[in-house]
Amino acid sequence: MRMSLALKIWLAVVAAITVVSMAFVIVARQQTQPPSPAREVLIRNEAGEIIGQSDGRPVRVPGQGLEIAVPLQGGGTLYVLLPPRRSGPGEGPPPPPPFLGPRADPTRLLWLLGLIALATAVATWPIVRGLTRRLDTLREGVDRWGQGDLRARVALEGTDEAGELAQHFNSAADRVESLVGSHRALLANASHELRSPLARLRMAVALQQTQPSEALRTEVDASIRELDALIDEILLASRLSASEGGVARLPRESVDWVGIAAEECARLSVPLDVQGLGADEPVPLIDGVPRLAQRLVRNLLTNAVRHGIPAGQGVGADPLIAGVQAHIQVQPQALVLTVRDRGPGIPPDLREAIFEPFFRLPGRSERDGSVGLGLALVRSIAQEHGATVLAQDPGDGGPGVAFVVTLPR
C-alpha cells in the first residue's frame, strides 16, 4: 500500500509529539512525588527487648502505602507496611487523583496524551499538507515536461528547499527548451540552405553532360566548396551548442589571441593596430580553444571584407581600399578586439538579429557568398570563451559598423 509523503510527515510529527508528551508526564510524575521523611521504627519482642531498629526512609509502594525495611538483630529483615490513611467518620471522600503526581489516575493520563496528540494532529496537518502540495505541483510539472510539453513550468512558492527546487527545475527547463529550439531551427534552416547549392550542382552536372565547358566546371567546384563550408559551419555550430549546454566541454589551452589576429589580418591584407602592450611586455595568453579563436577572428574579418564595402566598389575589393581595420586594446582585465569596416552599416534594430543562425540582412542572398552562419558562430565562440560580442557604430561618425569582442583575462 502506497503512503503519501504528507501522511508520512504528519504521522511522524504526531508520533514525535506523543513520545515527547509521554516522557514529559513520566518526568513530571517523578518530580512531583515528594520524598518520604525518615521514620524511626522499633521492633520489640514479648519481653520488651528491641530486636530490630530502622532509621531509614520508607519506600512508597503504589496503591499499598509506605513500606519500611527493619533489619533484625538476629539476622534477617522485617518489612513493615503502613497502609494509606482511611477516611474517618464524618469526613468527606478523598479528593480525586490529579493528572500528575504519585496518585495520578492512569486513565486520565491516557486522556491527556490523547488530547495532546489530537491537538498536534490538527495543528500540523495544514503545515505538512502545504509543503507536500507544492511537491505535488512540482511533480505534475515534471510529468508534463517529461511527456513532451517543453513549455511546462511550475509556480514559484516559498523560499525554502521546495521553492529552490522549483526554481532550478524552471531554469533547467528553460535551458533545455532553448537548446531543443535552436537545434530544430538549425536543422530546418540547414535543410533549406543546402537546397540551393545542391540544385546548382544538379543543374551544372546535367549541363556538363550535354554542353561541357570550363565555366560549368568552375560552377561545380564553387558549389562543392560552398557545401563543404556550410556543412563544416553547421557541425561546428551544433558542437558549440552541445558544449554550451554542458554536454561535452571542448578542451582548453592557452591561446595567443594577438598572434592569431595578426596571422589572419596578414592573410586578408587587413591592417592591425595593437595598443596597451609594451615593447618588453609578454603577449597575454587567455584560456580557450585555438581553432575556435581562429574561426572567430577569420569570420569577423571575412564578413567585413565581404559586406563592409563602400558604395561604388564591387565584391572582393582590396581591404585596404575598402577601409577594413582591426584593432586590439590590451587592458588589465580584458582584451578587446575590434573589426571595423566602411560599408553601408547595419540598422540598430537588426544588430542583435544578425547573430542569429541563417539570418541575412534585407537584400542579401546566398549569391553574396554568405549562408548566415558566420556571425552566429562568432557569438557562440565568444560565449564559449566567456566573452561578449557587439555590433555598434564606429564611433568616429563615419560609415560602416564595428564588431567589438571583449575577452576577459
SSE inventory with pairings:
Blueprint lengths: L4 H28 L8 E4 L5 E5 L4 E3 L3 E7 L5 E6 L23 H41 L14 H50 L3 H31 L8 E3 L1 H12 L3 E4 L10 E3 L1 H18 L11 H4 L2 E6 L3 E7 L33 H11 L3 E5 L9 E7 L1
Parallel strand pairs: 7-9
Antiparallel strand pairs: 1-2, 3-4, 4-5, 6-8, 9-10, 10-12, 11-12
Fold and architecture overview:
- The chain folds into three domains: 1-42 and 51-75 and 97-150, no CATH class; 161-244, Helix Hairpins; 253-408, Heat Shock Protein 90, CATH 3.30.565.
- The chain has 409 residues and is an alpha+beta fold.
- The chain is elongated, with a radius of gyration of 45 Å.
- The strands form four sheets. A five-stranded mixed sheet has the order 7-9-10-12-11.
- The longest helix is centred in the middle third of the chain and has 50 residues, at 161-210.
- The two termini are 59 Å apart.
- The mean pLDDT is 76.
- It has helices spanning 5-32, 106-146, 161-210, 214-244, 257-268, 290-307, 319-322, 374-384; strands spanning 41-44, 50-54, 59-61, 65-71, 77-82, 253-255, 272-275, 286-288, 325-330, 334-340, 388-392, 402-408.
